[in-house]
Amino acid sequence: MNAEFFYRIVFTALVAVTLSSAFVVVTARNLVRAAFALLFTLGGMAGLYVYLAADFLAATQIIVYVGGIMILILFGVMLTNKIVSVELYQGSARVGRSILLFAGLLFILFSVFFNTDWPLRGRPEMPPTSKAIGLAFMGEFLLPFEVVSILLLAALIGAVYIARREVRR
Amino acid sequence: MSLFDPASLSAYLAISAVLFCLGSYGIVSRRNAVSVLMGVELVLNAANLNLVAFSRFCSGDLRGQLFAIFVIVLAAAEAAVALAIILAIYHSFHTIDVNEIDSLRD
After folding, report:
1. Could you state, in order of their start, the residue ranges of all structural domains in chain A?
2. Domain A1-106's class?
3. ipTM of the complex
4. Which alpha helices (DSSP H) does chain A contain, by range?
């Protein structure tokens, strides 16, 4: 009973942190503040993955998103240093349309979620996943795995090529 | 209330729906290209949460998690290339306001 109560409290706290910092990400006027709020959103997502028994995925989320993509975005924010002068909103018309899009999408998604009869299974246990994921990558998913590694190489070279400054002799 | 039950599918679907809508709100309303990129990251995370939740509650195998890992890898590659493009745009246009960037030449 006590453990179950704690389980729910932590879940609610995780959801609150994730969603409120996601709200800050899309509304904060200060871009650095938005970037740091994104950090908390991604960390909360890692916690939700733990609740979904995806331990390997939670670790991957922290290493790749929080450790890699967040640093990249912060570099992007800091290197394009006119961020303070860029007004973040275009005007009330655009915000109104955006809120309309937000509400409409949310309504559609929620009505789909609660009107669909999902093929649910019982409450499963939480086995460790890393071994099974490794075996799947080396077996059934070998081709996508290799394709992704080539894509990463291409993205690496392409990013360096696009971002370098032209050297004029 | 099943919406706040950590062992129910609908809780995760609701969270990911809110995240997805917040992300698309950011993509549409922001003018700074880096902020648009942050909105895209939110949308990708929402999709990932759906994949993992369905993998746990409906299929029971790990395919959803494998797809989520591929999505994370693609998001990393996308962030790197997109930020490189933003830097190149900043060097030639001296702004990253997506409304100002409307010509293909210098």
Report:
1. 1-106, 127-169
2. mainly alpha
3. 0.88
4. 2-27, 31-51, 55-60, 70-79, 92-115, 130-138, 142-163
